[in-house]
Amino acid sequence: MPETKVADKNTPYWWEAAPVKPLPEQPLVRTLDVAIVGAGYAGLAAGLTLARAGRSVAAFDAMSPGEGASSRNGGITSGTIRHDQATLTRRFGEDKALAIEAEGKVAREFLYDFLATEGIACDFRPVGIFKGAIGFRQYDAMARGAETLARKLKIESYAVPHREQRGFIGTDFYRGGAVRMDIGGLHPGKFHAELLRVALASDLTVHAHTPVTAIERNVGGFRVTTAAGTVQARQVLVCTNGYTDGAAPYLRRRMVPVRSRIIATEELSADTMSRLMPRQMMMSEGRQLGFYYRPSPDGRRILFGGRDSSRVGDPVAPTLRLRNGLVELFPELEKTRLTHSWFGNVAMNRDMLPRIFEKDGVVYATGFCGSGVVWAPWIGTRAAHKLMGHTEQADTAFDFRPPAAVPLYRGNPWFMPAVIKGYGLQDRIAWWRAKR
């Protein structure tokens, strides 16, 4: 028996206002200064930087540019790291932990300045983010983290006790939370389209539907084989992240693609949106398999996302999980229709940190771990400066050793359903232990 349809469309909500469009075929320049693999946020930001510096550069994408995660994500300008401040401090020491957090602040400021300077029209609003605590013990940890950010990094960040929670979100599910105001929301499809526009105007050549199939080092640099032919490049930058394939086998053993799914509600009344999201903030929560959600840029819908354990096809179960999560937070939305449900790949690695690294002469800019709206343009730009030998402009805390390979992994993430189930078990244990 066929599965019941849960949402009207299985394409991204973002594509309604910013559809991914094919690019006209471009002539293949046989000799380049830099060949870039991938034309998402990172590849375009790097290509823009290199082209404006006078380098001959082309980006090759296996799909239409932006068709991957760059036009499928939640549009939250978080720039956060998967580990919390306490875990970073435990693993790397307080100085390194603060340096990583501080770079997130700089990367967000870089993005916001870029949007303003380049006239990027992508519905950006610096509304802040609220993170909900599942128990009072977790709230205490969030409150201490917010205090640290405010005191040491001068980020406007503060705790929200449970009694004040309704002023930020229309649910009693959480037991307080924390706010930081250096995070906002944008329209990711429009952002990519505008970034592509600016990059093309700066003489970056972008080849759509032109997968790279091999990268081979030779005397002059690299022989890059593509579906349209071969090119000789002095340098190569790989920015494939969650869509890494066999053209970059070294990276593929280190980047695990994980599906992230988002649902969109039908348009809600102004009163409902005012009640559920009174400050129009971005939202997240403190569970391992926690949800992230936000109002649509026009303030009329709720977009609700989380991890998807499926690996093939487009099954109904992950959409139902998100719908159930939405209703758990907002019971009044039980009868609300879903207009869209879609997924895209984020890339996780064993360190759970973004990364620039070099291996056999190839430079990689990757590992955004679900926070690519901020990290991808930043890391892509730093990588471009690294290729040009601009030491000061290339400086970043994330340029260090490659992430470790994942044992027994060669590109098929067969283990991800079990990993996600494990995270779910951790959440159930944490819920059981939580002081609510």
From TrEMBL:
<dbReference type="InterPro" id="IPR006076">
    <property type="entry name" value="FAD-dep_OxRdtase"/>
</dbReference>
<keyword id="KW-0560">Oxidoreductase</keyword>
<dbReference type="GO" id="GO:0016491">
    <property type="term" value="F:oxidoreductase activity"/>
</dbReference>
<protein>
    <submittedName>
        <fullName>FAD-binding oxidoreductase</fullName>
    </submittedName>
</protein>
<dbReference type="InterPro" id="IPR036188">
    <property type="entry name" value="FAD/NAD-bd_sf"/>
</dbReference>
<dbReference type="Pfam" id="PF01266">
    <property type="entry name" value="DAO"/>
</dbReference>
<feature type="domain" description="FAD dependent oxidoreductase">
    <location>
        <begin position="33"/>
        <end position="384"/>
    </location>
</feature>
<dbReference type="GO" id="GO:0005737">
    <property type="term" value="C:cytoplasm"/>
</dbReference>
